[in-house]
Design a protein that fits this description.
150 residues, mainly alpha, two-stranded antiparallel sheet, 10% strand
Amino acid sequence: MLLEPAAMKELFLGVVVRAKQKYSFRLENFSIMGNHFHFIIQPASKEKLSSILQWIMSVFAMAWNRIHDQTGHVWGQRFFSKVIAGIAEFLHTFLYIDENTVVGGLVSRGEDWAYCGLGVRRARASNFLDNPPEELCGLLPRHFPTKASQ
């Protein structure tokens, strides 16, 4: 199912914000597309990734279905996850998420997509997005511009 409306993405982000109040986890980058989403998420030691994502996906599906008088899953399949092993893989994944909307033809610049970490940080509109470790922020100048690069 392809879901494009901004209202869908706003509803999903609202559920993510609620999840951050219910569960302890870091969300360092994300992108919400029309039929899937990407997260760099780090659950706290006492949390389970599967519980967090199950809650997000089910609460979102119930809200979306209630609004649209539908039933069933909204996202087509269960989530896929992998452990990010090391700084190089973290940076590769982080930048992949940034460019996903460009490669998908949704925008010409990643920062123009309102429903991703880069767009949210550039608009200074985040109350739910966590910064990566400080030593990595300097390697992500589109997200964390220094005075010299502005």
